[in-house]
Prior knowledge:
Elements (H helix, E strand, L loop, with lengths): L2 H11 L3 H12 L6 H15 L5 H12 L6 H7 L1
Helix pairs in contact: 2-3, 3-4
Amino acid sequence: xxxxxxxxxxxxxxxxxxxxxxxxxxxxxxxxxxxxxxxxxxxxxxxxxxxxxxxxxxxxxxxxxxxxxxxxxxxxxxxx
Length: 80
């Protein structure tokens, strides 16, 4: 990926490129049909971005991901 992309993400979220890459690697090997795994990933992202996720939003994200209806970046921005 373009270094500029990561600079923009870091600027807007405070999340470093290395942290993003570690997350990407963990998602690639994760079983997204397992609710516990999906919730764990949501908590990791929330902690990395220092953005709390309400129980309601977490439940909506879990349902969407497990139903293979991955939310777009625009949809995620609206939730936070």
